[in-house]
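Section: protein folds

Sequence with per-residue tokens
===
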Amino acid sequence: MKRLLLAGAGHCHALLLKAFAQRGVKNFEITLVSPNRFSPYSGMIPGWIGGHYRWEECCIDFEKLCNKVGAQLLLDAIAELQPNQGTLKLQSGKTLDFDILSLDVGSTLAPLPGTGSTVLPMRPISDLPSHWNKLQENLLDLPAATPFRIVTIGGGAAGVEVALAAAHSLKILAPQVVFSFALATQDDDILLNMAATARTRLHRHLNLHRIELITNFRAHAIASDSVVSLEGKAIQADAILLASGAQPHAWLRASGLALDAQGFVRVDATLRSRSHTHIFASGDCAGWETPLPKAGVYAVRMAPVLTQNIIATAKSHPFQTYVPQNQYLALIGTDSRHAVAVRGRCSWEGRSMGWLKQMIDTRFVARMNQ
């Protein structure tokens, strides 16, 4: 029986465990390593920030998933990967041996150096509740008419959604505070990879919430009560919501695996490492010849291929190939139960799109937790 080690509690591993349980797969001794039993579903986090969900409603219970296939869940974090030796060292000091390793560890964010403004990084997501709750407590303690400026860093879908969600919920939470909001992006505009009509719609929502858009701003450091760009421009900020580009985990760079230019694991069409064929990578931590957006929709489509190919290693079955979809439906929440939908060059918006987003997200989490 092969030792299958699942590193990370991402979308792909949730779907893999669900498929193993449904298919009665018995060919592996399975261990899953994750710092937390409950893994938040990234698509619902802006809704949680906006006050539409409780935290527990956004989370997948990996202990329940592991129990259904007889897998061991180890609550620990990764310290070092030694692919040639087939070992994974954990921060607790424990070392795990594996025959097959699957990496679904997501990504992290590069921290902003310096001190001063409160910084809330959106990744790792599991750390977000403590940071967000502390910010809310501080806001509730502020006296009437206190000015408070919140700057979101990142012009992608996550940054736009987080900026809109925070503006919606915090004004309700602390009406005595005089808020101002800004969204800063290093590009010429938000969401450059999406349809122009979608950008126009989202510009309107940013304006409705009085969120200032600051373009061509490459956030570099924190200085006192400001965030400073690489060029030295400073934006006043009492709190910073950091939702900038995804970065690989530091231990990957020291692993000896073949990595792409950003430091993510280079994989072939079967989701296997290009340097170590007994190692798979999926989701955000996988690197492609033509880079894919770090979006959950790709991870969901990778999961059946990952499942089949891991089974194939034990049964000498042919491997399947993953072909990324050219287009996908993106649903970007704007405020209370409203969303903008984008596919290719087309976009729509309204409460019906918000209902669709809510249905897709909540059904996915509910299906994983059944």
Q: What stands out?
A: The chain has nine helices and 26 strands. The longest strand covers residues 28-34. The chain has two domains: 2-108+247-314, 114-244.
